[in-house]
Amino acid sequence: MGAEEVLDEVVTADNLEALLRRCAEALPGDYKPDSQAWGGAAASQLIARIRETPLEAEANRIFEKLLERGSLDEVRLAQNYVSPSLIAVDAIERARARTDLPADVARDLLSALGRALAAQPSQFQARHRALLSQPGSDALVGAVIVADHPWFLAHVKDVLGANADEACNRLWYGLQALFGAEGDALRAELDARRATLGDGYVQGLVETIDGEAASLRARPGGLRWSPVALVP
């Protein structure tokens, strides 16, 4: 297994957990002695260095443990740096069930759950629809579009909201989870629903997708959804 260096520390499977915990201990706002060296900046560098190596998967196993049993700082670190495609969805859900975490962390955990479900659409379940009304659910929109597509098309305003401006904002978050081909398909599907959703409402959504066209094209991939509902 390869090793990477962060702030003069060689990162290995043996010390990865200790280094991640050290980052958590020095998160901004804690005013600890090494907060300008370690903390979030070091965590970002560490995760970037180990990306697409076996250590990345190991880091996510550690994050799962921190989410479920870690300190508040460790949970904050984990939810921010998990890989949506590698983290176990049930670990995030168990973290959300904790009663010792403040509201802002609960909101961030829901955001992390949304990102994970968008990256792992097979893990999406009908019960996740109810989370759309909770603070932090913007990131869940992408998961609903990908994993629960027929239901999304039948409940666009329930998912995005009836207010056109708020709907565009919610859709923008959802687009961050989509591939380029999915953005094109979604644009056509929404454009065809002007009569039912309202011309002005749909125009805003279409313009939001157009505004993200370059970012969507940078994410190659085919359609991940089926015209037939996969979620009951």
**What strand order characterises the main sheet?**
1-2
Distance between the termini: 42 Å
> Approximately how much helix is present in the residues?
55-70%
Number of helical regions = 14
Q: Supply Rg.
A: 19 Å
Mean pLDDT across the residues is 91
The structural class is mainly alpha
Task: Explain this structure.
The model has no long low-confidence stretch (mean pLDDT 91). The radius of gyration is 19 Å and the shape is elongated. It is mainly α. Helices cover 59% and strands 3% of the residues. The chain folds into two domains: 1-101, no CATH class; 140-232, no CATH class. Helix 11 (180-191) runs antiparallel to helix 13. The protein starts with a strand and ends in a 15-residue tail after the last helix. The chain has helices at 16-25, 40-50, 54-69, 72-81, 89-96, 103-119, 140-147, 149-154, 156-160, 164-175, 180-191, 194-197, 199-211, 213-217, and strands at residues 4-6, 9-11. The chain has a two-stranded antiparallel sheet with strand order 1-2.
